[in-house]
Amino acid sequence: MATNLDFSHTVKQSLSRTLAIGIATGLCLAALTGCSMPFTNQSAGASDSDTAAGSGSNTTDNLTIDANAKKFVSCLTGKGFEAQATASPGVPDKNGKMKTPTAKNMVMLRMLDANGQPVEAADNGMSVNTDSTTQQMYANSMFTSIDYGTVWVAFKDSTALAGSPYESKRQDYADCEAKNPNFAQPAQDLSQTPTYSEADKQATLDFAKNAREKGFSWVADPTGNEPTTILIPKTVSEDELRRFFKECPVGDAHITYGFDGTPDDFGYDYTKVMDEAMGVVS
Which UniProt keywords apply (predicted)? Predict the structure, then answer.
């Protein structure tokens, strides 16, 4: 069974890289290039559409904190939470261009493991260094980000803390909500229904067909509501995955990869294999 989590995250570090991960029917990672939520190496002079919230660029680091978010953070920290405000993920306008965030309006808590200890980023700084048990505890979270090696998670409201390491502090969180009625997480920015062009759908079908012709018989045509996602089954070994990434580059196609389970299920860390394919140096 595919992992069914909503574990979207961005990465913020000195190299200003951004990796967005969304999980629906499986763990879906942005493919090597051209994705709607791409791994982006930010550089000076990047356009607005190249800058994602939480990317570590000056655009978001220097934003002011929304007044209501600031009050909410103050209340949470006063009750013992480690909290911070950050810019919510950008969303496309009617023309498909990503809107540049104007303020830090999302409040996030430090991600904790099952023992209540802070979760750290992996050595490569591009993935969360935790097991599947801890990930399952954040099934109700709405957004996760890696901020210079520390991992943060956002919840829509106090009810979403159920089942998480913060469950015992749900009432404290609810008290802060009651004291700050003008604050609300920008959840609408995180629930946009993705759209797929016919060209992208056809490009994914062509990619799958070409991969099968190269001997990767396990590459199936996408089905369901993710027509541009190539699902990688747990039967694919680490060596096979490396060969697949090498022999089947996506080029300019808007394709994402999905993994039918967690790294524990696969028996190896496929995020590291992807990092190597992307040329990321840990």
Answer: Kinase, Transferase
